[in-house]
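User: Some background: our group keeps a shared notebook of sequences we're curious about, and every so often someone picks one and asks for a predicted structure to add to the entry. Today it's my turn. The entry only has the sequence so far, pasted here. Could you supply the structure so I can complete it?
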Amino acid sequence: MDRPQKTILFSLVAVALAGWAAAWAFEQDMMLAMGGADNALSLAVFTSIWTVGMAAMMFPAIVPMVSLYNRLVNAGGAGQASISEPPKKTYSGKVMLFVACYLVVWALTGVAILLGWSELMNVSAATAGQSIHYVFATVLVISGIYQFTPLKNKCLGYCESPMSFFMRRWSAGTAGAIKMGLYHGLYCLGCCWPYFLLMVALGWMNLAWMALFAALIFGEKIWSRGIWLARIAGAGFIIAGILAGAEIVQIDPMNMGSMDEMSMDEIPADENSAGMSMNTMLLLLS
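Assistant: Of course. Here's the predicted structure to add to the notebook entry:
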């Protein structure tokens, strides 16, 4: 491994480790922020911690992509690179821009998922009543089915084969770094959105679930047969959804057991507002 590769590897891993430390430190803040999607401060807190969490979870898996991009930049393009020869210089600002744009896609995705899910929960709480568990079951089943689709397979193919991605999407210069970073983020989103939808929708924003999903994502992208990991996870989601829909298993949407013990006197006065937490809604419905 040459010096540029080591620099990229250590940089991404260091940022990932810092992200895990931040996720551990702000885990409860994330959970609270998820309950106030209509509040600008809560949304800002969620977006910040979510983005750090994405760096923690995704950066180890994109090391091969970023390392190859560095080689291609220094070689002058995808059609002129010789990956058997080390680049003549260390990584440039284009590499950092590529990674930053990749991360922007995930930051915006987190906001979209949170706002969309919050609105869905507000509508469901008013209409579904005691049948709200069907909403959670549906999310699990849809997430599971997606793992078997051609789109999942296509997006994963570009993520686990960096050279294929760059041969298809190569664009030179600063604009190219931005464009390819966004494209890679979108392909990665196409691979992994079920995991992150579940992390927001079912309240699995804790270190244990983050670590499990991060391991699945890493395995999918690094292993040449990672699609089988995706399908195993998909089968698990479908089974969990069926069990939840049949009320054989019960889902704690925000994974915060302390809410179950909250007395009615402790429920906020604005409990009927659109921004009240999912836990409060479910407590009132139970």
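Suggested note for the entry: The longest helix spans residues 93-127. The radius of gyration is 21 Å.
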